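Protein modeling request. Please complete all fields; requests missing the sequence field cannot be processed.
Requester role: graduate student
Desired output: 3D structure, token encoding
Chains: 1
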Amino acid sequence: MKPAYNFVAILCLAMLTLTGCNSSDNSDTAVAADDRWVELGERQYLLALPQSFDENKIYPLIMAFHFSGGSATAMAQLTRLHKLSDDYIVVYPQAQVEEWNEGCDCNKPARLKIDDVGFVDAILADMAARYKVDPDRVFATGYSQGGLFVQNLACKRSDVFRAVAVVSAPMSMQLASNCAPTNPISVLMIHAANDEVLPFNGLAHSNFGLIGSVEAAQLWAAHNQLQLDSEWQHLADDIRLRSSDGTDYKVTLYSPATGGHSWGFAGLDSSEEVLAFFAGH
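Delivered output (281 residues):
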């Protein structure tokens, strides 16, 4: 039965003006000639090495997951993480279908039993075989439905990922009820208060329920045995902040008042914030 909440269609419409939905073009101006597609069984990922890559150097790794209906190429073009820092190897994985298996047991990848967590495991093993990757500094970020998925990784692979960053996504209600990370993990969340695609305050739905971003941040703080600030700090450009800082781990939630469902916001560059957050770990 087709879900009543047509999530892919809504996200495609929301993203059309930014990147183009369901694009399969693997060549764009944000991907340098030295960056390449890597085949891994029946799956693939886009690999971006630092411009001054040194095969003898140990590098931290960032995995960046695209939005519903998007592509690895679109995520590279949107975030430009590999262009903004020469300190990381960046991998942009490609979903097998329109979405990632985010752990809600509610979407197409779940019905097809696509093992996206296993795909991530395979990428990490492939990267470790090819390059000198720092196993203590492996990070993941995701936009929109990709942001829902990286929280699935945080729940299931907290022993692998040092920190994750979520942009324009709260958290799946089903995942929140089953999330059991084995290790502390730092989490950055950036989510506009007026997001109408994946609402900041969550969504009551029989199939695709979402908890709000504040509740999600509180959940991650509790997993780290921390307490999220009870009050908002009001920053410039109508941006609010709530956080919980521990000695080694932290949870940070930025909420711009406007900007809707987007990667970037006035007064807050998500790519720069993600890189700064990871650099602190």
